[in-house]
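Collaborator request log, item 7. Partner lab (contact: R.S.) asked for a structural prediction of Phosphonate C-P lyase system protein PhnG to inform their binding assays.
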Amino acid sequence: MEEQDFILCECELEPLQAFVASIEENFDITIAKAPSTCMTMIQAEDSVEFQEFYLGEALTTECEILVNGQRGYGICLGDEPVRSYCVGFIDALTQLPGADLQVIYAFLNEQLQLIRKAEQLEYNQIMRTRVDFKLMEQE
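Returned to partner:
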């Protein structure tokens, strides 16, 4: 799924953690690298000349997991060890040959709808504060 990383980093942690807990018992899991924080350089692109540059560094949490021997990598902004574990687990699971991905895609689609709904609500709240300035014409 194209927006998998976005969804997993933006969705609420509780449903993500509950979802992973509900399916992880069916797999052999080895933590190759326990969740740990680090500083990551954030790359951006100039919108005028389309040149890449480094915006700065951000605190991230990364984790590496083996699910039935398939390696998965999770990274997210902030100090979020549980989320990075969940992202790594789902990353490995989606690359696992023969894995049933329908339940994962159903979860991701459900979370995407909730994210879009929250974004629309935030947009509507911002638009309510919009001020329409009128200029007085001088004659």
